[in-house]
Structure formats: C-alpha cells, structure tokens
C-alpha cells in the first residue's frame, strides 16, 4: 500500500482547440475551453481534499467537453489510483498516452502503478526505458523515470542496473546543485531541470513543487543506496534534503536508518525521536476517525478474521489485549522500535529453552496506519494489511502463506528492532 504520487497538469485549454471556420466558432470554442479548464481546476481541488466522487464528476464533464484532451484522463487516472483501482488507473493513463506519447504526467504515475500496485517491476522498467529512449522530456522527468527504473531493477534483484540507473544519470549533478548549491546555483539548476527558458522561470508555487520533487527523488535514491549497504551515500543525499527542509520527517526517518547502518546509534536514536515529534505534529486528515471508532475498526478486523493465529488472540479463555495508540512511545523507539511501525505484537519470552514467546498484546498505531491511507474507505484494508504483515513477521509465515493472505511474497523493509 502506498500514498499515491500524482502529477498535476496545467489546464489544457489549447488541447481542446481546433481550427475554427468563423468568429462564432472561435467564440464557442473559447467558451468550451474555459469551461473545460474550470472543470479540471475544480477536479484537482476536490482531489487534493480527498473528495474523489466530486473530482471524478468534474473530470468526466471535462472529458465530455474535450474528448481529445489528455488532462481529463490524467485526472481520472490519479483518482483511480487514489481509490485503489490500479487497473482503471492504467486504462486512463494509457488513454492519455495515446493522445500524447511523451506526457510525463501520465508516464511517471503509470510506471509507479506497474511497480507498486501491480507488483510488475519488469513492466515498469520497460515503460521507463522506452520513454527515456524515445521521449524528449525535461531533465527532472527523465531523472524521475530513471529512479523508478532503478527501483524496478532493485525489485528484480538486479543491483548492477539499479545502481547504474542513478549513478550514470546526467541529471544527478543538477539535482545536487538544486538541493545544496548557493541560492543562485540552486535557482539555475531548477530552471535547467524543468526546461524553463530564461524569460519563463517558474513562479513561486511552481518552484515549491519542483523543490519538493527534488527532495522526494533524493529520498528514493537514498533508499536504494541503503538497500545496497551504501549508507554513507544515502546519508549524503538525506542531509542535503534536510538542509532544504529540516521539518521533512521522511528524510529524518531514512537518515536514522542510514545512521544505524553506519554504527552511529546515538545519532540514529536522535533522528528517530525527531521523526516521532514531527509525525505527532502533523495535522490529521479531515476524514480521520476518532480514537473510539479507530479502536472499534481494529477490534472488528481481529474479531472477524479467519487467520488461526489472529483468532487465537481473541480466544475466550485468554483474550489478548488490543491497544490503539497514536505512535510508539519514546521509550520503545529508544529501545530500537521503528517509529513508523503501524502494528506490533508484544510478547513475553520465557527463560525456558525452546519455549515459544507468549503474545501479551497487539498494538495498532493510528497515525502510522493513516499514513498509508488516503480516504476513510481505505482504512479497513490498510489496517488489515498492517496487522497481517506484523502477524506474518512474528510467526515467520512462508512466501506461499503470505500470498494466500494477500501479502507480498517478500515483506518490505523490516521494522528496526521489533519489540517482541
């Protein structure tokens, strides 16, 4: 599960225009183009607030006004992705690419869907390579595609190609300059990355979006380096990201992992505590359920599960406590628990040899579960996956058993120092 990445395109007024034969036709087309742009803007505004039904309605109205425009399919693809409909998202993005084969707003999210949602890294990699070979894209989009290709290669255990995609990228020096150069160097690098002309520099809002994309790519590159035990390289990219935004909890989270791998335990614990405090300060989504409703949803999942190991936790003779908390405590994090673990089984380990650990509680952390959901409708699925993932890790389920539970055959990054 992931929070979807979306790439918003500018309203495509020109894409709706056709050559008119007289002034009345021009006026008619101008009115249609204005209505089209209004629907697209309204749709993205609703999308960003999580009001997906309204966003879809606006996108459909825009599509009906301009069937040959690629902006409506892009918006529909983003909505489908956010509402856990990857197959529908693929169809919408494919339609956008039929209209414009070099459209980064469709190429990039489509590649991510193949990689993350469809668990098809070879398809994602093929799409990225084809686009890199044939498309004339801005540097920042080319770098994004190279990072996705690297992530896809890593998912296929192809370390050599994964490293080559990012280490051989011509755009990497521009990314470094954008993130850690002087203000003048950074501004120039951003302009080159996005392909802006001298008299067409990005405005303040566009610049903020570009800087955020640069930080996100730096974090993704760092994650790949961590996976291949290049913690020092990861640390260099992460420290650049933190210089750009010292409140970036994701950067601090990855930095704590890199510091642990470098043996800097004290610094890693300090970074992990920073993550806790930043996450706790983050505003909850408007659709977030109350503590009581969240606990009730967790209890319903456990009570209705047919997984034997989970059913045993609610046996009438010895029910295991179900605790719901906002985040792990500072004490647990200082003992090595992942500050972003969504669920954890606590257990007592007997001193008797070969005696299995006895589960003493299932703890579900509300904010860490909410991070992976984008709407209230997604919450039960996200929470269920979190609990099952912890159960599978605790009991060491086989890849076949994981697959039967709907979990990936190989778990993602394991939590640091699970408090079992």
How would you describe this structure in keywords?
single chain, 420 residues, mainly alpha, Serine Threonine Protein Phosphatase 5, Tetratricopeptide repeat, Zincin-like, 3 domains, three-stranded mixed sheet, globular, disordered C terminus
Please describe the topology of this protein:
Elements: H1 23-48, H2 52-65, H3 71-82, H4 86-99, H5 104-117, H6 121-134, H7 139-155, H8 159-167, H9 172-180, H10 183-194, H11 204-227, H12 231-244, H13 249-261, H14 265-281, H15 291-304, H16 308-311, E1 322-325, H17 330-334, E2 343-348, E3 358-365, H18 366-370, H19 379-395, H20 399-404
Parallel strand pairs: 1-3
Antiparallel strand pairs: 2-3
What is this structure, in a nutshell?
The protein is mainly α and 420 residues long.
CATH class of the largest domain: Mainly Alpha
- Percent range for helical residues? 55-70%
Instruction: Determine the mean pLDDT.
Output: 86
Strand content: under 5%
Q: Structural class given helices, strands, pairing?
A: mainly alpha
CATH topology term of the largest domain: Serine Threonine Protein Phosphatase 5, Tetratricopeptide repeat
> What is the CATH architecture descriptor of the largest domain?
Alpha Horseshoe
- What sequence of helices (H) and strands (E) makes up the elements? HHHHHHHHHHHHHHHHEHEEHHH
Note the total helix count: 20
- What composes the largest sheet? 3 strands, mixed
| Quaternary | single chain
Query: How far is it from the N-terminal to the C-terminal residue, by CA?
Result: 24 Å
Strand order of the largest sheet: 1-3-2
Give the tally of structural domains.
Answer: 3
Low-confidence regions: 8-15, 17-23, 413-420
Number of strands: 3
Which of globular, elongated, flat, extended, rod-shaped describes the shape? globular
* CATH homologous superfamily heading of the largest domain: Tetratricopeptide repeat domain
